[in-house]
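Exercise 3.2. Students should predict the tertiary structure of the chain below and write it as structure tokens, then compare their answer with the key that follows.

Predict this chain's 3D structure.
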Amino acid sequence: MFFGVSVKLRGMRSVVLALLCGGISWAIALNAPYAGWHVLGSQPLSVKAGNSAAHPSLALDARGRPVVAWLEDSVLDNIYVRRWNGNTWTLLGKTGVNRAADTDLWEPAMVLDHQGFPTVAWTGHNRLFPKAPIQLYVSRWNGRVWKPLGRALPQGSGDGVPSEPRLAVDREGVVTLAWIEDTKDRGSIHVARWKNATWNMIGSGRLDMTTSGLVLSPALALDRAGLPSVAWLENNGKLDYLTNEDHLYVKHWDGKRWSLVGPTSIDINGHNEHSAPSLQIDSLNRPVVAWTEYGYTPSAVYVKRWDGQRWNLIGNTPATSDRGTYFWESPSLALNSADNPVVSWVEEGKKLYVKRWSGAAWVYLDTARLNASLAEIGRDSGPNDPTLALGSDGQPFLAWSQVLTNNDFYGIHVRRYVPPPRLPPRR
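Answer key:
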């Protein structure tokens, strides 16, 4: 027979007593918090109260400590980065990443190298000179200050406006950057690598599939050899409503050329609305992509993995429209040590969900408690731009921006998931 007793002391699950077949087994976890989504330190993470903070980018260092970058809107915009040290959030640099005054900033992206030092990319524009071009910048934290990686990046095509930078870093700390250049009604994707103190373009020509359609929402990831893959959304440029379509593509750089992964796009229906994709590369160098679609097919989050021959759905879908939900957005994807995906997304601008693939099924991670936490932050607001990262134990961290109750400004919030404790094994 089996008896179990759990005692709660000061918010901790402190003692589990199990009586098994006449023998007594004790399991003591004096520092194990209750299962669910836990706040890390004082939040929101804004540097100055009253400033709006948005577009968080989240990563974990080698010690499993979260690092968050975000854009903070004030008289002078800036990008800030904080690291969780186990007790509090430490600001990296007193003046922010961008050191140029009178600059409008957009779209920060961040990665951590093998030393745990962050690199941040963003686009910026000098507000004192309205005709000055929007430019793309990258800076790295060296442990003391933020140092630019070169000057503003030159445009890959010479005549475009850069937007949507994405970063990745290999095991040697070499940074790869992808971005879009917009020219009137179309765009192009470019990829460069920082090496030998300069930016080197990877490949020549265009990655995108047409010369007439919009290109949006790139995602970037590196394989074990440091070779990049890029996923993106692209419109086919057709003006007729019946033939106008959006598609999701993935290309891989093999060291000599960019090649399409698969015979065609990987989306479900080109007439649907699509979200930005999230891309990861598993331990066997297979790309995994998460995105959402709605419209001509039921609203859903999709996750596909390339097996070397075809793109395969992982499960049916991690989420379906059985709750009557219409609009799903902002998927963020991570892979655990077993290459099983964990994905988060937002439903109808209000609810935030996280599911893990167990190898056989998609499993929710304490959705009720997570969304109760959102309601405490802002009764009439929902999460924006959630981003997901996994610790070495495979448990997720989440960061997002959200308007606070009784305020009109956004703040950055971070949560860590703690799984339910395991009872002593039967014997």
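Discussion points: The longest helix spans residues 367-377. Residues 1-34 form one domain.
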